[in-house]
Amino acid sequence: MKKPFATAYDAIKKLLKSIFGGKKDETAEEGAEGTEAQAAEEASEGGEGSEETQEAVEEKEPTPEEKSKVLENVLHNIAEEEGIKEEKVSKGELDEQKKYEQEVKKRAQRAAKREAEDKKKEAAEAAAEKSGNVKTVVDPVTGDEVPLGALPKEASYLKKYMRIPTTSDDIAVAINSIIKHPEMPKNIVILGRNGFGTVKVGEDFARSFYELGLVKSDKIAKTKAKQLNKMSLDSLTKLKGGCLIIENAGLVSFNKLVEVIKDSGPENNDYVVILTGEIDSLANFFEDNADIVDSFIYLIDIHKIKERGMMHLARGYVKERGYKADKSVYDKMKNSLKSMEEGNIDRFIGFIDEVIGRCDKREASDGDVKKEIMPGDV
């Protein structure tokens, strides 16, 4: 591939050679100087008496004005060609910019719609709580309004999310609806925000499904979408009756997901598919692939979790693991959140696991196992 402007340089070089002559391996300037010297030498060798030769040489030699004009025309033509190239690049960049702006607009519209729905939902929740009436929700399968219902005690791994606004309702609705409609697909979509890690939430659903008897196996397989796109599903025969978690699911190909859905059917390997990923990427994926929407009835919206929700999650997780901690421990955990992406559940739970590990090591060395996390462990 030629370097930028190489074409223009070659054209100028060729022009000068055609005007002045010269050797093939000389540069444009050297060619010009060499040709002029050669013409002068040939004229001299011809002698004063060789008028025809001298006149021919003089006739072939263009004036400086002619040289300048020819060179100017070529440069103009090259500039026009380069201009056309730049126009094509600009048009391509313009298309990309337009596409980007449309995506930004679409995401902003979705965000505004979600915010309006959340406000409406929060207002309804506040009114219901004030009135003392039973809270009702829409059953995702039938579309009927039904009482929200409590989270079954067997779904203990999901209990730590139940103090997170909006998310808690989505979880209770999904679990209760799956229990009520066992013949329907149990697949789950967990909607996060860019930078979130929500695979741990998927694992908690998988474990709860097993505890509730909604799946036959406690096996859990995890894979990233790009990895899944390249792999054969033969390896998933070992997953029979368990759960498959797909990370960054907005990047999975339509054909591969169709293949997975077919493979996960009760007549085949009978496993549950749990998609996790960024909310807008997944929204785009389902908009573009409406044929598979019916296979994913249950949506868990966890993209709005803030610091307060993360601390509810921390307290619930510490309790779930069978440990105790006081306010000073949770205050230090809250400070640690500042070094993480807000709402990155995977990273935060991993951090708490490390804290618990340090607690275990300290208590083992002391010979007194109380399972009580101290500020020094954080």
Task: Describe this structure in a few short sentences.
The protein is 56% helix and 8% strand. By secondary structure, it is α/β, with parallel strands linked by helices.
Distance between the termini: 57 Å
Shape: globular
Strand content: 5-15%
Q: Percent of residues in helical segments?
A: 55-70%
Main sheet strand line-up: 4-5-6-3-7
Number-wise, the strands total 7
Rg from alpha-carbon coordinates: 36 Å
The overall pLDDT average reads 79
Topology:
Blueprint: H1 6-20, H2 28-46, H3 51-60, H4 64-131, E1 136-138, E2 145-147, H5 167-180, E3 188-192, H6 199-211, E4 220-224, H7 225-230, E5 243-247, H8 254-263, E6 272-278, H9 279-288, E7 298-301, H10 307-320, H11 327-336, H12 345-366
Helix pairs in contact: 1-2, 1-4, 10-12
Description:
The protein has 378 residues and is an alpha/beta fold. The protein has 12 helices and 7 strands. Strands 4-5-6-3-7 form a 5-stranded parallel β-sheet. A two-stranded antiparallel sheet has the order 1-2. β1 and β2 form a beta hairpin. It starts with 5 loop residues before the first helix and ends in a 12-residue tail after the last helix. The N terminus is likely disordered.
